[in-house]
Amino acid sequence: MLTHDxxxxxxxxxxxxxxxxxxxxxxxxxxxxxxxxxxxxxxxLVLDLGCGPGSLSARLLARLPExxxxxxxxxxxxxxxxxxxxxxxxxxxxxxxxSGWTRELGLERPVDAAVSTTALHWLSEPELKSMxxxxxxVLRPGGLLLDGDHLESDDTTPVLARLQQAVHDRxxxxxxxxxxxxxxxxxxxxxxxxPDLADLDEERTTAGAGHHGSxxxxxxxxxxxxxxxxxxxxxxxxxxxxxxxxxxxxx
Length: 251
Description:
Rossmann fold; seven-stranded mixed sheet; globular; SAM-dependent_MTases_sf; Methyltransferase domain-containing protein; Methyltransf_25; transferase; methyltransferase
């Protein structure tokens, strides 16, 4: 039986390994939530796409306690950790790559903001286009997509892309030196070795919920897909190297 305390410890360990790739992760979270708050509604309806164990969702609800946050992911193990650690959140298991995923959310009004961090790059470009197009059908006019991720620009501005990578690398070196946190693979290996997570890990394996590469790593892929989906203003709201907060406004 997965307890609240055990889930909380695993999520803290998840956050630490994520920070190894994103030394400015908490700052990016803060800016993203600032943008949701700036919409001016105390009770926004927010979708967290590819929520993992709920790290962003929990921070968002802590800042905006009147918000409704629907946390969406396809990974049963990460969702299991989130449900045990954050009973105040609403987790929905659905695959963003599947047409009709929004029907699983039980929405009763248009969405004010869709947010995501370090998740949507796993989608292939065709899947990304389909997902953004479906998302646009449930976002209100003027609603936001806020996507924090490593988005590269070497296809359009290769010199800037190299500089952005260098900025990110230097920030990581300053933050961790020769002692980086455990990496993504080591975290998952540790999860697989924990008997308390065996059932969830087996369910994850059966569902084929693992990731197999960065499919849409380019800024241009996301901008093009968003424009096709009817988003109007699209740009970088915050940036540190190639770590960005991409913002798009639903037309």
